[in-house]
Amino acid sequence: MNIFHTLFKTSIGKKIVMAVTGFILIGFIVGHLVGNLQIFSHPDKINEYAHFLQSLGPALWLVRAFLLLTVVLHIGVAIALVLENKAARPQGYAGQKTLKASYASRTMRYSGVIVLAFIIYHILHFTVRITHGSEAYPQTLLHGEVVADVHSMMVLGFQKPLVSVFYLISVGLLSWHISHGLASMFQSLGLRSRAWSSALQKLSVVFAVVYFLGNAAIVVAPLSGMVKVQNPALLTSAGQPCSTDCQVCETRVAKN
Amino acid sequence: MNVTLRVWRQKNAETEGRFEEYEAKDLNPNMSFLEMMDVVNEDLTDKGEEPIAFAHDCREGICGTCSCMIDGKPHGPEHGVATCQTYMRSFNDGDKITVEPFRAKAFPIVKDLVSDRAAFDEIMQAGGFVSIRTGAAPDANSIPVPKEAADLAMDAAACIGCGACVAACKNASAMLFVSAKAGQLNTLPQGQPEKDKRVLNMVATMDEAGFGNCTNQYECSAACPKLISEEFIAKFNRDFTAASVRSWFAAKAL
Ligand code: HEM
Ligand code: FES
Asked: Model-level pTM?
C-alpha cells in the first residue's frame, strides 16, 4: 500500500487526515489568538508583530500555502466522509434515539461550514482588507517607518456591532467545533484510552471555553470602549485629544 | 399487560416496506421480548396472516442472532442486554413499541425485521482468525500470555457480532465490531505474526462492504449488549496506522 491510498482511500486513513489537519488548525488558531491578545498592550506591540509577519515575504507565503492546503484537506475529506456516511444508511429509522453522542459531535458539519464562511470573511476583512472603505485601514508611524496600523484597524472593526456579533457567533461555533474535535482527534489517532477519556473530554471543553473567552475579549474590548483607537492622526482628525499633555496640536485639552 | 406494536413489514429486499400495527394482549411481564413476538405470531398464524419474521437463535444472549431496533435503540431499552434477554417488564402497560430492522447499506433487509449481516462474516474471513497448525493440543502455558493481555482479549471476545454497533451508529460504521474482533487477536501473542495483514485486510473488507466512517460519537458502545468499549476502536486506529506505515516501507515480494 502507498501513503495516498492509506490516507485518502481507507476509512481510517481519512480520519487520520481529519485529525492531523485538525491538529494543525488548532495549533494555528492558538498562535493566532495569542498574537491578537497583544491588542491589550501598547499599539506598537501588535503593529510591530504584524509588520514582522508581513516582512517575512516568501516565508509568509509558504506558511499561507501550507495552511490553505491544510484547510482544503480538512474540508475535502470532511465532505467525502459526510457523503459516505449518508450513503451507508440509505433508508433511515422512523425514530432513532441518541444514546450518548454530544450535540457538538452531531453538528460538526454545520459548525464547520459556518466557520468556513467566517474564515473567508475574516481574511477579506483583515488580510485582504476590502470589506470596508480605506478609512477602516489606517496607517501609522513605527520607528520612523509607515506601517499598517493593525491596532486601530481591529478597534475600528470591532466598534461596529454587526461585525462584532458575527465574529462572536463564528468564534463561538469554532469553539463548539473544537470542543468535540480536540477529544475526537485523540481517538482517531489511537491516543485515547479508558483511563483518561473522561479527563480528555473535560479538558477539550475547558480548552474550547478558554479559547472562546480569549477571542471574545478581543472583540468586546473595542465594542465596549475598553480598548480605544490610539493612533494620534486618527484622534486629531476626529477632534479628540490624542494625549492629555500634548503641546503641539490644537485640540489639546487640559489634564484634570 | 397489553402493548401495541408498530412493526416494520417488508416482504423481501426488492419490495417497499411499511409499518403495521398489532395489539399484543394479556402478556406476562416476565415474558422475553421474543416470547411476546412468538405470541403475536401465533395469533397472526391463527388468523391466516403472515407471521412477523425476526432473527433469533440461542435466546440467552450469547449467539448474536437477535436484532431489532426497539423504540429507536438496538436491542431495546435496557443497557448491555440483547433483545432476547429483554423482558416485557422493561415496558409499561399500554406502551406503543416501534420495532424496526437494523438498517445499513451493508445489512440489506431480508424480510420484515431480519437484515442480512453476512458482511460481518466476510470481515471475519478477511482477518478474524489466527493461522495455527492443528494437531495435538499444545502444552499448557507453552506460550506465556500476560494477564493484562488475556483480560483485554477476553473483553474484546465478549462481542457476539450482533451488529447493534452498526445499527446504532449515525453513520452505520462497523468500527466497534471490527476493532473488537481484531483487538482480541492483536493483544494476544498468537495474533502477532498476522497482525498487520489482519488489520489492513479487515479494514479493506469493511470499507468495501459499504459501512460508514467512525465519527467518534460512541453510540456503538452505548448500544452494545456486551458493552464493548470504544477503547478498542482507538487501539484499532493505532494498529492500522502502524500497519500502514510499515506497509509503505515494506520490501516488495521477490
Ligand atoms: C480553524 C478551523 C478548524 C479547526 C481548528 C478544526 C478542527 C477540527 C478537529 C480537531 C476535528 C476532529 C478530527 C477528528 O475527528 O479526528 C474536526 C472535525 C471536523 N471538521 Fe473541522 N476544524 C476547522 C474547520 C472546519 C471547517 C471549515 C469545516 C467544514 C467546512 C470543518 C468540518 C469538520 C467536520 C465535518 C469534522 C468531523 C469529521 C469526522 O468526525 O469524521 N472543520 N475539525
Ligand atoms: S438470540 Fe442469541 S443473542 Fe439473542
From this structure: 0.92
